[in-house]
Amino acid sequence: MKLELGYIYINDIKFSDLSKVENGTLYVNKEEIEAMILEDENVKSVKVEIAKPGESIRITPVKDVIEPRVKVEGPGGIFPGIISKVETVGMGKTNVLKGSAVVTTGKIVGFQEGIIDMAGVGAEYTPFSKLNNLVLACEPVDGIEAHEHEKSVRMAGLKTSTYLGKLAKDIKPDEVETFETLSIVDSIKKYPELPKVAYVQMLQSQGLLHDTYVYGVDAKRTLSTLINPTELMDGAIISGNCVSACDKNTTYHHLNNPVVHDLFEKHGKEINFVGIIITNENVYLADKERSSNWTAKLAEQIGLDGVIISQEGFGNPDTDLIMNCKKIEEKGIKTVIITDEYAGRDGASQSLADADEKADAVVTGGNANELIELKPMDKIIGDIMPVNTIAGGFDGSLKEDGSIVVELQAITGATNELGFNKLTAKEY
Amino acid sequence: MVKEIERVGIPVVHICTVVPISLTVGANRIVPAIAIPHPLGNPSLTMEEEKVIRRTLLGKAIKALSTEVDGQTVFED
Amino acid sequence: MGKIKVVQYINQFYAGIGGEEKADYKPEVREEIIGPGMAFKAAFKDEAEIIATIICGDSYFNENLDSAKEKILQMVKKYNPDIFIAGPAFNAGRYGVACGTIAEAVQTEMKIPVLTGMYCENPGADMFRKSVYIVETKNSAAGMRAAVKKMAPLAMKLAKGEEIGSPSEEGYLSRGIRKNYFAADRGSKRAVDMLIKKLKGEEFITEFPMPDFDRVEPNPAVKDISKAKVALVTSGGIVPKGNPDRIESSSASKYGKYDILNYTDLTSETHETAHGGYDPTYANQDADRVLPVDIMREFEKEGKIGELHRYFYSTTGNGTSVANSKAYAAEFSKELKNDGVDAVILTST
Fold it and tell me: Distance between CA atoms of C329 and A189, rounded to whole angstroms?
């Protein structure tokens, strides 16, 4: 399966009468977007705003971040099974508005939504402060049920992203990158001497607004399965996820999965990157056992030598992570796991809820409990009041002058467990 | 050592002088002893008096072995 | 600024007073530089001076924990030093515990920096690594030079209140405190690089060493102890007189299994200790003080226990590596199980 990603670099975003992409600037017709979102009868009102790198803007509570893409050639469309038909994607050509994103915010859905600061120290902890963001602050109709609310906001983001992506369909990309995955048999023939490596991606699927969708299917109702790396780049996996901001994978993360990209970097040189196993993180012990059994079995079945396992979230998913690691190691397959830590504000507590000596190769995205002080910003998009109640915030987080003291947990993407960031922790 | 015995399924009581070490090495039933060179005796007493002490300590040990514990427990008396 | 004032704590052995026979030596302070202090003096050059050395026997300290701690604390207070250094204790268990205990007490009570040094398997290391800085040393005094080389500069940094680097930079045992920082590469790249190293069999460094969760759940209590077969096990090195298996006095590589079927009492004629880590006088006079066969026989006769298992197992606990003692304990534990033993009394010195 072969996909060409064409990057169109966006270095500015502006409102305009006509939506278009020109000379690296994304022009957006606000009214068209608003009208499109208001088609959903569960949305009472929407405010469309712009947030650029370096601006004194705080966006909160953030639900999802999405990168606009469009299918230029090949079967299917972006976000199959949700926005596009459930055609298999990952082939042909896809254009990307690199450097831009759609951010959804507005009335809080769950307790675990995040903060994106476009400037100041907080900006260093979230990758989304570097993007030209179109922010949608959606207010739901009164009395809406939480799942419906989440779905409406999720769909508003995906639709807007699709709308923006389409602006790039006929534009010649600034740069093209090609990704190809052969069948396992062919890739072994091509690289007989290289160790066969796969990526095991764990998807948050705890329910109660902690969900992930694969081709439109709720991941908690899936068995561990194989997927091609390029399918992710066309939006096969999306976030439906109002969990802890710091280590949830937004749709942007799924589209730009850094493990996939860094495995491709070494593919054909030091490793043979044969594909991805996706598995879930359910709440029942039997599900955890079944899913990790299947993951280990698939890893053995396709004859792997090594895997990288990434987690999403924390707490009971630590058990899924350790089960996956242990069972795969027991098959004689080497593992590296990526996680983050909840070691307390002083860093002295136990970082993970579960552990095993087989997990001897760990990459950490840092201690999510570490406190950070965020200075006041000139402008708030969304609603600042939930800051005292979101995960990582506490009563008194929000000071009178508008500054906030929170755990890193509250910052969107801060301790990402796909290894998206440079943040990590070490022991003193 | 105490953990390995526990691991095969035999309840074990650890009679030792330096209780914190016993807690660190993971003993579950602990009876504090008299002194390092003579955990179950006291040379400054008569042999008969010593036996009384020894009897008391072992009595505690027997009691500890007959007592259900939830986690690490020090049997002081 | 004048010289940094140091008070050092050492045991009776390093003070040149004596070995195990002097382990009950009471706390004493001398206004001079003694034993390891000489190496520290050389390393400090003109920056610091040891103004007093406190000496205490290891057994005395551990058996009189509260009073010894209080007494030594008063001694340290009198000199009002800028830093307190205990040890290094290497792999001497009771010395390590003493160093950790007194260092922690000085730190808490006097709010001055403290430093000690010991081997990573010293029981004092696990007990105190979270509260005080413990420089990792070799397992014997042969590592003194290397220990001082790491301890002296760290002591100076602590005394001056300078920022302390990571455990690998400074040579201390990690205190289990996690701190965030920005690495050179993103996490995914670090993961891929780590996997490639692991696949090649090259050395790699995990970013989060797994904690030791090795706790064993307590077994259910013995239902009826008056019917139970009870075995005696000791790490106090009790062996038949003459030490037939030649169990080493320290860093034991084996354990002994001995028949006590025909004994109702252990005496100086029949048994002794092979343990080199404590004063053997009392155990040699009457091994029942460590391995209480006499009372167990009485219990057996009185029906307090069902029977005393015919064999006891013995090792010497001091200096024996965790891995070693674990391995042979696993071995004899299986034997005990197969022999139908219902409960074990383990005695340690």
Answer: 50
In chain A, where the domains are located: 2-410
Per-residue pLDDT band at B22 (split at 50, 70, 90): confident
A window 18-47, beta carbon within 8 A of C: none
- Mean residue pLDDT of chain C comes to 91
The answer on C33 and C142 residing in a single domain is: yes
| Residues in chain B closer than 8 A to C230 (CB atoms) | 65
ipTM of the complex in this document: 0.97
Q: Do A428 and C190 touch (CB under 8 A)?
A: no
Q: What's the gap in Å between the CA of B17 and the closest CA on chain C?
A: 7
In a domain, C287, yes or no: yes
A touches B, CB cut-off 8 Å, minimum 3 pairs: no
In Å, how far are C13, C88, C97, C132 from C103, measured between CA atoms? 19, 12, 10, 7
Residue A233, SS3 per DSSP: helix
Does residue C99 belong to any structural domain of this protein?
yes
User: A8: which 2 tokens?
Assistant: 């169109």
% of chain A exceeding 90 in pLDDT: 82
Q: Which of C182, C199, C208 sits opposite A423 (nearest CB)?
A: C182
Phi, psi for C137 (deg, rounded to 5): -120, 175
Q: Tell whether C18 and C136 lie within a shared domain.
A: yes
| pLDDT digits 0-9 by tens, A215-256 | 999 999 999 999 999 999 999 999 987 667 999 999 999 999
Residues C22 and C124 occupy one common structural domain:
yes
Active-site amino acid positions of A: 242
User: Does a structural domain hold residue C183?
Assistant: no
CATH number of the domain that residue C123 is part of: 3.40.50.2300
Clarify whether residues C148 and C11 are in a common domain.
yes
Name the residue among A377, A416, A419 with its Cα closest to residue A60. Answer: A377
CA distances from B64 to A417, B29, B67, C220, C344 (A): 46, 6, 5, 11, 11
Average pLDDT value over all residues in chain A: 94
- pLDDT number for residue A12: 98
Contact C168, C199 (CB under 8 A): no
Residues of C in contact with B35 (CB under 8 A): 59, 63
Is C192 within 8 Å of A367 when comparing Cβ atoms? no
Model confidence pLDDT, tens digit, residues C74-124: 999 999 999 999 999 998 888 999 999 999 999 999 999 999 999 988 888
**Chains C, B in contact, 3 or more Cβ pairs below 8 Å:** yes
The nearest CA of chain A is from the CA of C3 a distance in Å of 28
Q: How many CB pairs lie under 8 A apart between chains B and C?
A: 188
Domain annotation covers residue C204: no
- The residue range of the domain holding C134 is 4-170
pLDDT tens digits for range A144-199 = 888 889 899 999 999 999 999 999 999 999 999 999 999 999 999 999 999 999 99
Tell which A residues from 395 to 414 touch C, by Cβ distance under 8 Å: 408
